[in-house]
Amino acid sequence: MAGDDGNGNSSAVRGGGGGSGQEEVQIEIAGSSKPAVSLAHEAPPQSAPVKHWQWWLMVVLNMFFLVAGQTSATLLGRFYYNEGGNSKWLSTFVQTAGFPVLFVAQFLFRPKSPSTQATTSSPEASITKITLIYIALGLIIAADDLMYSYGLLYLPVSTYSLICASQLAFNAVFSYFLNAQKFTPLIFNSVLLLTFSASLLGVDEDSPSSSDISQGNHVLGFVLTLGASATYSLILSLMQVTFEKVIKRETFSVVLNMQIYTAFVATLASLVGLFASGEWKTLEGEMHMFSPGKVSYVMTVLWTAISWQIASVGVVGLIFVVSSLFSNVISTLALPIIPVFAVIFFHDKMDGIKIIAMLIAIWGFISYGYQLYVDDKKSRKTSSSVEENS
Description:
Blueprint: H1 48-82, H2 88-94, H3 102-108, H4 114-120, H5 127-154, H6 157-164, H7 167-178, H8 185-203, H9 215-247, H10 252-276, H11 283-289, H12 294-321, H13 324-334, H14 338-346, H15 352-389
Helix pairs in contact: 1-12, 1-13, 1-14, 2-5, 2-10, 2-12, 3-10, 5-9, 5-10, 6-14, 7-8, 7-9, 8-15, 10-12, 12-13, 13-15
């Protein structure tokens, strides 16, 4: 996940998707208390309507990538387990193994004027320090993905997704301590609601949907999924600290490099885990025992990896055109949608407790989203006042 890993309370739109004649823009990182700073030249007034239209198109397109990629990857992961797959390390591996797809985005959105950017950017941090940060974050991401893999194995996909929605509450907490994020009443309300939603699922004795999953494994799955959500939010805050304190630049290419190189480290760590655990020896047997057949097994693994990277492209795209907080919010929005598909495709039991938990999670999301809207409105008003006075 990196997904996402990554995830500034006000949205920062600066020049759309790298239009001609513009330099790379600076974006705002989740939880940041400082306004975003643009390095781009202002576009000519006559091109503004086109730029605005292009911007909305990119926002909608990247939202689709994120929601569709995350939803399909989660459902395919559950399908893999349901049909006979059992390798937790393989499930961990596919969450980041498709990272080379991001090189396409790096090529398409490369800076138009690198020489100019070099004169306006902050001094480069040491390669050794950045490399160590990438390695540390990559290892944490691998551990986080492994916890998600266990959670998806031991929980119904509907329960798993609703617990994952708690990442927004954890994001608010870590942003408060690490990124000077203000704890407003709306955010506090969101944290309470999302915590309560996860707690409801934790005490729901009827959650296990399969006799093959013991109560102990169900509890383990709940704890690991909750821990994975907390770790994911911690990763986002640590990335923000890296951007602000070490790299001291928050441009699209910097964010993309963070995604690529941490995913590379996480993928290598997953491979080591796959071989060290001995699970690689069982993969051939899994393929033969997979209910729909060998081809279906290969395609399930392949499309799970591709789906995660489609979601990753959406994450990076939304960070680029809006903000990393908005990207994280949209990622969380997808989570209450997954239980609906889980009921349709996997016949998950959607009892009263889950429905209430889902509604509370949506309420918490709306509360957090409204705070984003309020902050964005204040930011725009402040920017307008500064422009008028200057």
